[in-house]
Amino acid sequence: MRNVLKIKRWEAGIKQYELAILLGCSSTYLSMVENGRVEPTEKFKEKVAEIFNESTCDIFAEQKDVASMVQEKKVAALT
Predict the structure, then answer these.
(1) Which residue segment(s) compose the domain that 23 sits in?
(2) What is the CATH number of the domain that holds 50?
(3) What is the pTM of this model?
């Protein structure tokens, strides 16, 4: 699994400890999720999606799906 959580957090200008507070988890757990060391719970995924106003699929996707999303955004930016 590959997720774009860290990228979304950076884009929003949110520090890791700040997001951890919003999610009600430790910075350590958030780091482990961001780096793919642990599989996040569904509840965690839902909270993240709510904070970033995205679907869980957009944030937590298979690696091939992430590449597709990047390509779609590049095409959309050109049009």
Answers:
(1) 2-78
(2) 1.10.260.40
(3) 0.73
Tens of pLDDT along 30-73?
A: 999 999 899 999 999 999 999 999 999 888 876 444 555 566 66
For residue 9, which of 76, 42, 27, 38 has the smallest C-alpha distance? 27
Distance CA 67, CA 59 (A): 12
- Residue found under tokens 């050109």: 78
pLDDT in tens, 2-24: 568 999 999 999 999 999 999 99
Residue bearing tokens 């910075």: 27
Report helix angle 5-12 to 27-34, nearest 10: 120
Domain total in the chain: 1
Exposed/middle/buried for residue 43 (C-beta within 10 Å: 0-12, 13-18, 19+): exposed
Cα 17 to Cα 7, 20, 31, 38, 48, distances in angstroms: 15, 5, 9, 18, 14
